[in-house]
Amino acid sequence: MKSIRLTLVGILLAAMVTACGGDEPAPSDQPSDGSTTTTITESMDTTDQPRSDDSHAEITIGDLTYTFDISGLPAQCSQSGPYLQGSFALDASGAAVQAGGPNASVQLNFGIPPEDWESQGLSPGSVGVENQTTNEYWLAAADVGPADGTIGIQTISLDGNHATGTATFLEINGFYAGGEPRVVEGSYDITCGSA
Hints:
By secondary structure, the protein is mainly β.
């Protein structure tokens, strides 16, 4: 009974291939027992998917520069509306890991608006680097720290999936624990694959 069902399935597949204009295999490709072998393949177009090997960032905070290269990982950033946003992470050895994962020792989080964010009524965006080894979280965002407006992204150049600019960072862990504000100037250069 099982062989009858398999034969019927084989006949139906052969009929569908013939009806759809499928070519018969070349005689050298046919099995010697007279049956026909049909191979069905499925292809997936990945040309529009963000490629992680194109995504990288360099964040300078004072004298320290963090370099993130997420080659080999799923894309972790995108163009979301007018913003370029995402997260990159490194483990304790400096190797790229999945952002938000258990091995993330240093994590970059960013949301970069277009240059004319104010006229569009958008938020000013942010760039932050959290280092679990040093227990520091350097954040450039207008809504943190002293109310004098000095903390945050200062300049923006956003061209599709690439953002560069300058920022004033505040180390917020110490600040919110009651310490003196540690404020440093820095810069960012972020590219998001095929975002």
